[in-house]
Amino acid sequence: MKTVNIAIDGPAGAGKSTIARSVASELGYIYVDTGALYRTIALYMNENGMSETADIINALDKCEVGLKYIDGQQRVFLGDRDVSEDIRKPEISMGASKVSAIPEVREHLFNVQKKMAEENDVIMDGRDIGTVVLPDADVKIFLTASAEERANRRYKELALKPDCPSYDEILKDIIERDYNDMNRPIAPLKQADDAVLVDSTTLSLEQVVETIKKIILDKTGVK
Ligand code: DC
Q: Which of the residues 35, 97, 101, 119 could staple to 184 if both were Cys, CB 3.0 to 4.6 A apart?
């Protein structure tokens, strides 16, 4: 039976994962966070002290990235090791943006993503889901917000944690990652021609969830 595939793309910090997780749980779909796959490669490279592109490409065969769903939550594995928390460190965010520009890395992860979408009803979020990974997705959404608003949300999220970076550092990091992700030659972040644009700058989380749920229900006819 054909599975339902929903693609949500957009820049870092637009709220894709929070919204996709919430909508997926309401609709009974599996939420696939593809950024976690790139982060896992970056973690492996970081832990093994690799920064040269050639070394990264040669190490890909040893980098067994896998997804498992435990109590409905995505967990990411590097071999047998659950790395779901380790990949969230700030240095891994920038590392993921860098390794994601390497064509061999993207190819390595392409099949993992494709297989998930062939076997399950999914809401998949990333940068190139609607343009490259699932060009025939049933629904495509491009979720964005201003860089300042994204930095502001991230700052509020991190403010309670020790070693919280300043607002200016977060904003600089967001602008740099946007630039890397939008300007790489392969599979850059961009809105697919048939994607619906949702700008969440002035919307609450609840409003964005409702907007996106309505777009999905209208397009798929699912009630
Ligand atoms: O969504 P995220 O912030 O966890 O993603 C980390 C990096 O991975 C992001 O800066 C770009 C890259 N990425 C990508 O190139 N393609 C995807 N489909 C998902 C993420």
A: 101
